[in-house]
Specification:
- By secondary structure, the protein is mainly alpha-helical.
- It has three domains: 127 residues, no CATH class; 68 residues, Arc Repressor Mutant, subunit A (Orthogonal Bundle), CATH 1.10.10.10; 76 residues.
- Helices cover 65% and strands 7% of the residues.
- Strands 3-5-4 form a three-stranded antiparallel sheet.
- Helix 2 packs across helix 3, helix 5 crosses helix 6 and helix 7 crosses helix 8.
- The two termini are 29 Å apart.
- 23% of the residues are buried.
């Protein structure tokens, strides 16, 4: 009996997300280096575990010789030890440059933490996915609430609790704009508001109001939004199928040779194909984002 190996599909998906992250932010030979490290570790895991590779794990330390050998098997090209060194240096340069952008809401966990060396080398897939999740969350916030919201949320996440006035000052926003962004994210569960009374009477005039950006809560909210979007896309597909049921029946007859293609409504068929193609493409993109948060 045959079955789909979901574990292997997930493992390959997680590895692909980690590789894409490095290719986008580090460039150069980073894609080939990370692929080679993961492949070398996979070969070692299959030998030691009887042909079963774990779904997602940080790779074991493998020698540079094994990495270079793996690159030849995958790409039929020779990586050099200098290529690995250049990727490590590019990661450190990226982290150093990115630290300057912290005030603008674009700071990242360090990419250099994903690749560890002690003479040998290993890749931390779990750390790479944590970075990818952080970036995807910021992208969702920016798409939903705007670039100012991204800056405010990331500043709160990095800085902890802050009052609205301090948030406006640090994020270089007018007080009214900061309030609008904060309450929009509060309504959608991406930030929390806590009152800290000075006195027991809890009078509003004698109460501090502080804002926080809990990562776990924001991640859950983003995941819910992604699933809702996917559900809307699936509903649209079902609606199009139902609305064009007669057209689809005729297409089926044409495919069976029982009807001439000239009897089809060409413009309606073209419109349906375009709608389905766009919807399916959006679904694939949403599914990739959902995988990051799963």
């Amino acid at each position: 009996l045959w079955r789909v190996n979901f574990e292997e599909c997930n493992r390959r998906l997680y590895n692909s997300l980690a590789i894409d992250l490095f290719e986008k932010h580090v460039g150069g030979a980073s894609r080939k280096v990370v692929e080679a490290i993961l492949y070398a570790d996979e070969q070692e895991a299959e030998l030691s575990d009887g042909g079963v590779a774990p779904i997602m794990h940080d790779s074991s330390f493998v020698s540079q010789q094994d990495v270079l050998k793996a690159s030849k098997e995958i790409h039929a090209v020779h990586l050099k030890a200098s290529d690995i060194k250049e990727v490590l240096e590019a990661c450190r340069d990226h982290d150093a440059g990115d630290a300057v952008l912290t005030a603008h809401g674009k700071s990242l966990p360090p990419l250099s933490s994903c690749i560890q060396t002690n003479g040998n080398i290993r890749f931390r897939t779990t750390e790479a996915l944590r970075i990818a999740r952080h970036l995807s969350l910021l992208a969702i916030i920016e798409q939903r609430f705007g670039s100012s919201a991204r800056r405010v949320w990331n500043m709160l996440y990095l800085g902890g609790q802050m009052e609205q006035k301090a948030i406006a000052t640090e994020s270089m926003l007018h007080n009214g704009e900061a309030r609008e962004v904060l309450y929009a994210m509060l309504r959608n569960g991406f930030v929390t508001l806590q009152d800290v009374p000075r006195n027991a009477d809890r009078a509003p005039s004698r109460t501090f109001y502080t804002w926080r950006a809990p990562l776990d809560m924001a991640t859950i909210r983003a995941t819910i939004m992604l699933y809702r979007t996917a559900n809307n896309l699936l509903s649209r597909m079902a609606h199009e199928t139902s609305t064009n049921s007669e057209l689809l029946r005729r297409v089926h007859l044409v495919n069976q040779g029982r009807m001439d293609a000239s009897q089809l409504n060409a413009s309606q068929l073209h419109k349906l194909k375009a709608t389905v193609r766009i919807t399916e493409s959006a679904l694939i993109d949403i599914e990739s984002q959902i995988a990051i948060f799963s």
